[in-house]
Amino acid sequence: MSFSIFGLAISSGIAIGRAHLVSHATLEVAQYQLRERDVEAEVARLEAAFAAVSGELDALREEAAQPGTPAEIEAFVDLHAMILADPMLAEEPKILIRERRCNAEWALVQQMRLLAAQFDEIDDAYLRERKQDIVQVVERVVKVLMGKPRKLARRIRDEDLIIVAHDLSPADTIQFKNLRIGGFITDLGGATSHTAIVARSLKIPAVVGMHHARPLIQDDDLLIVDGSRGVLIVDPDERVLAEYRIRKSALELERSKLKRLTTARANTLDEVEISLQANIELPQDIDQVKTVGADGVGLFRTEFLFMNRDELPDEDEQFEAYRSVAKALAGKPVTIRTLDIGADKTSRALRGSDRPTPNPALGLRAIRYCLAEPQTFLAQLRAILRASAYGRVRLLIPMLVHVKEIEQTLALVEYAKAQLRQARLKFDEGIEIGGMIEVPAAALSVGLFLKRLDFLSIGTNDLIQYTLAIDRADETVAHLYDPLHPAVLRLIAQTIQAGERAGRPVSVCGEMAGEPAMTRLLLGMGLRFFSMHPAQLLEVKQQVVMADTQLLAVKVNRLLRADDPERIRELLARLSEI
Ligand code: PEP
Ligand code: MG
């Protein structure tokens, strides 16, 4: 039966594909006692299920061998086949069935739990993570036992895979970079959560905050994810499917037309030059940055280098990552933000960064964490400084609130420089140091920041979160997360204007900068430096080249004096007529 569910549109585009549930709900199996005479039939049922999964994997392997299928799929099928054949998984549950006269699903899940606990003890991070593979193999067998065989094998090449999850962390999402995922939907999550940000950077359509979608969807259901309207259609009929296929092609055509703007200068109609830079999470994102012709990297979120691993990246590894980006951009600016760990971004490699705290967004996050862990911070500062010898590197400090945080940071930068001089390692002595304006206190005392720093970057995602007291990752308050709240607009405008008066560049690197509907508003406030996920850059450029900053400034001044939300929206809509 076809039905639709609505959520928050976080990454535009349309995906049509089959559901892939990432949750272990299927492993919550019932236990029941067998009669003695049924025991052998139960063992045979388990063996048959193993054989069926083995057949599924063979079919999958055949598909994976076809040209055009990513190589990881084949490796993953081989690994799963190996796990399936291992006697620890294939034989031990049979003993349990015979000894305890229990059902096959339950015996298998018990054995899986035992193996998983052993994996938790392993030191080697790679091997420890293989626990997930065991869980996935067991899920396959349990589904067969419960009469729900997977049909993924047939479809792997011609349809996208759509991840359906209750929740995904930024660390989960970043792993999609290596896989071919068509789209994803989650029950939890807010529009500017880091999970959403990573989805946008991957250019995969996504809808979050769907509340109870996950339990309503089955593996392999046909889904349409409309990431622009925030809609998920489950099991669409032929007519809807045909309509969405047309819309998908139209969108692709639209995107390909935008490509013509790649080499165009981002100048407004009144010849004001606008700098459009890109936000990245990992060095590999740089290809996309170059493809869209960005003027540099306005925000490198380095914390993603620290996720999904047990050991910290040491100074040399970080240096290599930062240097590769600096070199790839050949003289264009690369703004490397120091570790912004905490809140929804955690790393098991960083001491205490994933410990439960009463209110993580207000806790030991970003620069607060770094100043509390000076050795980790110094290693990163040295790595960034060393990379500055290979391109135009700028250093950006997140979540500053107090002057003393700036001063302590600057002192540590000086200390790191002294260490490098002593070690005779090259770096840019005049490296520019900037701060992020993400907390209302910083925006309201911006003069203190402008005196001490070379540039500012407004992180609107956090500025909105902290101004409106809305957790950006919590879908239950997502409707209150409003970039157009007059308090937010005034804080942004004041910061831009203060920077202009002090002759210091100010950029916006939060999601607002990549929102074409906000481009004219920000231009009218005086913004000249935008940094956004590269997937949005050409759409924003299209707005820039059609805008006149002088006319916009007058209209935006009026908008900034308005308090009524309806009036603000009305005045915003009128900006597009200029
Ligand atoms: C922001 O807060 O707007 C920002 C750019 O930083 P992040 O999204 O990484 O918190
Ligand atoms: Mg932030």
The rounded Rg comes to 26 Å
Helix tally?
24
Please give the number of β-strands: 16
Number of domains: 3
Bound molecules: phosphoenolpyruvate, magnesium ion
- Name the poorly predicted regions: 149-157
Strand content: 5-15%
| CATH architecture descriptor text of the largest domain | Alpha-Beta Barrel
Broad CATH class of the largest domain: Alpha Beta
The level of helicity is 40-55%
Structural summary, described in words:
It is a single chain. The protein is of the alpha/beta class. The protein has three domains: 24-145, PtsI, HPr-binding domain (Enzyme I, Chain A, domain 2, Orthogonal Bundle); 160-257, Glucose Oxidase, domain 1; 262-575, TIM Barrel, CATH 3.20.20.60. The chain has 24 helices and 16 strands. The strands form two sheets. It has an eight-stranded mixed beta sheet with strand order 1-8-7-3-4-5-6-2. Strands 9-10-11-12-13-14-15-16 form an eight-stranded parallel beta barrel, surrounded by six helices. The longest helix has 26 residues, at 39-64. The site of magnesium ion has 5 residues, from helix 19.
